[in-house]
Design a protein that fits this description.
The protein has 7 helices and 7 strands; from the N terminus they run βαββααβαβαβααβ. By secondary structure, it is of the alpha+beta class. The chain has one domain. Strands 4-5-7-6 form a 4-stranded antiparallel beta sheet, covered by helices on one side. Strands 1-3-2 form a 3-stranded antiparallel beta sheet, with helices on one face. A hairpin with a 3-residue loop joins strand 2 and strand 3. The longest helix is centred in the N-terminal third of the chain and has 22 residues. It starts with 14 loop residues before the first strand and ends with a strand.
C-alpha cells in the first residue's frame, strides 16, 4: 500500500481524497488508459452515492486535475452506520467483477424469482447533480434476451459480443450511451466519470449472492449501431455496459 504526500494540499477532517495515479500499465491498455482512470474514479463516486442514499445523507464531490474530493455535509447521519453494517458489507462483498474464463453457468439454480433493479431517475438525477448537471447526457438502456421485452437482443448477438455469457440465462445488459446532442465533446472526462458512477450504482443495486454484475468496456459502437434504438438515434453513442446475470 502506498501513500500520498502533497505540499500544496490542506487535508480536512471528514473529507475523502481520491488520488489519480498512473498505475495502469500503458503497454496493456494503450488505447483506453485515460478512460479507464476516469471510469474507476466514477466507480468510487458511485460507491459514495450508494452509501449516502442508503443513510439519507448528502455529500459534495469536486473534481481536480490530480485528485477528487468527497465531503459529507451532514456527517451525523452516518452515526447509525453500524445498524446496517452487515447489509453494507454484504452488498460490497457480492458486487462482483473481474475476469471470467469459460461460460458463466449454474444449471441447478432457480431463476424464476430473480428481478433486475433498473437504475432509478432519482439516482440519475443525484449523480448528474454531482457531475455535469444534465440528466440527459448519459442514457442507460437495459436489454434482455426475452422476445416480449421492450429492448430485445437475440441470442446470436449476445454470444457474438459476450461469449462468456450464457444466452439462455436470466441476464440483463445495461448499455450506458453518451448523448452527443447535449454532451460537450471537448470535455468528455466529466461524462466518463458519470458513466462510471452510474455503472457502479447499477452493480450495487443488484449486488446479491448468485448474481454477477460485471462492467464491460467491450462495447463496440459499430456492432450496437445495428440495434433499433441506436439505429434510430445516431446521437446515442454506446460506450460502456454492465452485465447482470444470475449464476
Amino acid at each position: 500500500m502506498g501513500h500520498y504526500v502533497s505540499n500544496s494540499l490542506e487535508f480536512e477532517k471528514y473529507r475523502i481524497y481520491i488520488v489519480k495515479e498512473r498505475e495502469i500499465a500503458l503497454s496493456t491498455y494503450s488505447s483506453i488508459h485515460n478512460s479507464l482512470q476516469v471510469l474507476e474514479s466514477g466507480h468510487v463516486l458511485g460507491c459514495y452515492n450508494y452509501i449516502s442514499t442508503l443513510f439519507d445523507c448528502s455529500f459534495v464531490f469536486k473534481d481536480y486535475d490530480d485528485y477528487n474530493t468527497v465531503t459529507f455535509t451532514n456527517i451525523s447521519k452516518l452515526a447509525n452506520i453500524y445498524d446496517k453494517f452487515g447489509f453494507v458489507i454484504d452488498k460490497f462483498k457480492h458486487r462482483s467483477s473481474g475476469r471470467y474464463y469459460g461460460m458463466l453457468s449454474n444449471w441447478n439454480l432457480n431463476r424464476n424469482n430473480y428481478k433486475f433493479n433498473e437504475i432509478s431517475n432519482f439516482d440519475i438525477a443525484r449523480i448528474s447533480k454531482l457531475t455535469d448537471e444534465n440528466v440527459q447526457s448519459v442514457i442507460p438502456i437495459s436489454y434482455t434476451n426475452h422476445k416480449d421485452s421492450k429492448n430485445y437482443l437475440t441470442d446470436e448477438f449476445i454470444q457474438k459480443e459476450y461469449p462468456f455469457l450464457h444466452p439462455t440465462f436470466e441476464s440483463v445488459i445495461t448499455v450506458l450511451a453518451l448523448n452527443l446532442s447535449v454532451c460537450n465533446t471537448h470535455n468528455l472526462e466529466i461524462y466518463l466519470e458519470k458513466i462510471g458512477a452510474l455503472a457502479q450504482t447499477i452493480c450495487m443495486n443488484n449486488s446479491s449472492n448468485h448474481v454477477v454484475n460485471r462492467p464491460v468496456k467491450q462495447v463496440i459502437p459499430k456492432n450496437w449501431e445495428k440495434i433499433d434504438k441506436f439505429k434510430r438515434n445516431k446521437n446515442l453513442l454506446p460506450f460502456y455496459a454492465v452485465i447482470t446475470t444470475v449464476v
